[in-house]
Specification:
single chain, mainly beta, four-stranded antiparallel beta sheet
């Protein structure tokens, strides 16, 4: 489950004009926790964040580098709220 102090998997998909972007750098952030991961061939970035406290937590994913001609670097996702169990 989503317990405090336990790393939780977080995922994001980077698409450019509907095409997956591989090798893009994505940073997941929630409060003081952050993790930077690289997308795979399907444009999926899978990271993990550890939440120190229980309760609702907001997670955002930011594309920091794409390595392609696509101008989606610096794009921030809609914040996702996860509820961390005590």
């Amino acid at each position: 489950g989503r317990a405090a102090g336990v790393p939780l998997p977080v995922t994001a998909v980077v698409l450019c004009n509907g095409v997956p972007v591989s090798g893009a750098s994505v940073t997941f952030t929630s409060g003081t926790a952050s993790a930077t991961v690289i997308t795979n061939a399907l444009g999926v970035a899978i990271g993990s964040l550890t939440f120190s406290t229980a309760g609702p937590a907001t997670v955002t994913a930011t594309v920091t580098a794409t390595g392609t001609a696509c101008a989606c670097s610096g794009v921030v996702s809609v914040p996702i709220t996860v509820t961390v169990a005590p």
